[in-house]
Input
Amino acid sequence: MEPTRCGWCTSSDLYKKYHDEEWGIPVYDDPTLFEFLILETFQAGLSWITILNKRENFRNAFDHFDYKKVALYCDDKIEELMQNNGIIRNKLKIKAAVSNAQAFMKVQDEFGSFSDYIWKFTDGKPIINHPKTSKDVPATTPLSDEISKDLKKRGFKFVGSTVIYAHMQATGMVNDHAEDCWTRTK
Output
């Protein structure tokens, strides 16, 4: 028998695997935080399953999310990415990935790591919510508003409050698993 999961992830095995193994689990390493930041920015206006289905293509196209390499992408590389039908070919989002990699490294220079910067907003600990169902989970919060505003001030793009709240959920800064979800007991 299948375990009880959050309602949003039951439509595919890929969704279930992501839910069970990644979503809501705290991430403190910069490379993974950068990967989710890029994936979430590409997800803006699209469904998360679209991004998950293209995740390996994104990894290959963006040098396995090596932010030091992405920060150096030139116009030729951006045009190459625009021809890659395995990813979301949105020029503004591709350019944002490059500028976000540059801003990411500036944050590292200032705070020692992006992880130290982003987790300071929650005092280094996950926020544990207790939604009854996925319908009880907000799209934004005052904290995602605050982080979004701060990131934009630091030069990040495509980091609106909804994107940032999704990033917080993906990286375990927020645990929004439904109360009856099996992951609450692991």
